[in-house]
Amino acid sequence: MILDDYKKKLVSADVAMKAVKDGDWVEFAWGASFPNLLAAALDKRRDELKDVNLRGGVITKPLFFIENDPNGEHFTWNSMHMSGIERKLAQKGLAYYIPIKYSEVPRYIRENCQTDVVAIQVAPMDEYGYFSFGVSVSHYYAAIEKARTVIVEVNDDMPKVQGGYEHNVHISKVDYVVEGGPQGLPVLPSSAPSELDKQIAGLVISEIEDGSCIQLGIGGMPNALGSMIAESDLKDLGIHTEMLVDGFVDMVNAGRVTGLRKNLDKGRMAYSFAAGTQKLYDFMNDNPAIAGYPVDYTNHPFVASKIDKLISINSAVEIDLSGQVCSESAGPYIISGAGGQLDFVEAAYNSKGGKSFICLPSTYKDKNGNVKSRIRGQITLGSIITDTRPCVHYVVTEYGKVNLKGMSSWQRAEALISIAHPDFRDELIAEARELRIWRKK
Q: How far is the C-alpha of 270 from the C-alpha of 212, rounded, in Å?
């Protein structure tokens, strides 16, 4: 019965993508899950279609069907988290950002977003008729509930993951199956941590205790911290994260992770999407220690905060002396997106014994090679506030760490200036005086 249903729904990518109509919204790709054959079939139909909106995010492969439509007459890309690929398209006016709080995305889709077609990549069907979402659980199930047509492209190399819940879809809910054979998965290499990353990570690791539960963002500093944890003597760590990355595999292989002290998913690593190297994808395949969940479980502060000693580590672009954090843009120019940063900032602080860390180097170089401070008197005009000032817990640079909770405006100014680069401290003090938040004479 199940195999008969599968065979009836088995079609070519070209046939499947005929389901897309003018004006449709298509849930298409997230992270390392990218339907290659469906993308090519959509591109073939470019001249037939108008005003088709595609939705996705954290894209790891070129969106050639968007690039091949330079005037945006046929397709528009709508991103819930900009990758470098999407950012370049946005600069050309071919991609647009959807502001999100990541934990809320399944609800947005169920209540607020138009979703006509789902066209996603999955693992091969199992004997019970289920296709695993593999590396991207995220919000796919919510989109399937809303869609008129559900198309799955089977990648033989997609890891089958265990749940959790809403981590797979049954053949009965699928309209078309496209077999893609072995395609591999996009590799997202871990950026090598700099000496600065290692300095910042060293200040954070001293705050982690045995039995802590770790959430890591992406980038050099979180990678550095993952390596340091793997080399430490910490014990019985847990993992509860939106994004599963290679650093977690290193921590597990080093014997640092058991998850046995977790209040939720004891002994298991909860995640919502994953991207990394083949090492990570091999580790995920049918691993009973991993639990794939929709993002409204992994990221919801009410859920994640139930885990004791939740440690959240994320990066930022800049912070002002009031404690406002920008992690999404350089002025009005989009860099990435909010993702789940605010979710975990709130969750970690509300966790018993939990701590949230915003980590950033004290300086950066602008396009002309001039050194600028990432700690500023006021946030850069047009920059997006990711974490409002009452939410921020610890802030860490290579010059130290400060806990902003409960501090008044002058205390915040003093604390943040103390971890700014020494070359900019006098300038920041002058700004603080002008803003009337400097108490010292």
A: 14
Q: Model's pTM, two decimal places?
A: 0.95
- With contact defined as beta carbons under 8 Å apart, do 415 and 407 qualify? yes
With beta carbons less than 8 A apart as the criterion, state whether 241 and 221 touch: no
CB of 25 closer than 8 Å to CB of 114: yes
Q: Which residues is 326 bridged to in the sheet?
A: 318
* Residues forming CATH 3.40.1080.20 domain(s) in the chain: 195-434
Q: Residue 304 contacts by C-beta under 8 Å, 6 or more apart in sequence?
A: 215, 240, 298, 310, 343, 344, 347, 348, 351
Active site residues: 242
CA distance 245 to 255: 17
Cβ(313)–Cβ(208) below 8 Å = no
Closest to 292 measured CA to CA, from 168, 398, 202: 168
Where exactly does CATH 3.40.1080.10 map onto the chain?
Answer: 2-179
Cα→Cα distances 156→17, 148, 188, 244, Å: 20, 26, 19, 21
* The CATH number of the domain covering residues in 195-434: 3.40.1080.20
> pLDDT means per 10 residues in the chain (441 residues)?
94 98 98 97 97 97 96 96 95 95 98 98 98 98 98 98 96 98 89 83 94 86 83 96 93 96 97 95 97 98 98 95 96 92 97 97 94 97 96 98 98 98 98 94 64
* Rounded distance between C-alpha atoms, residue 11 and residue 9, angstroms: 6
Q: Answer yes or no: are the C-beta atoms of 13 and 153 closer than 8 Å.
A: yes
CATH 3.30.565.10 matches 2-179: no
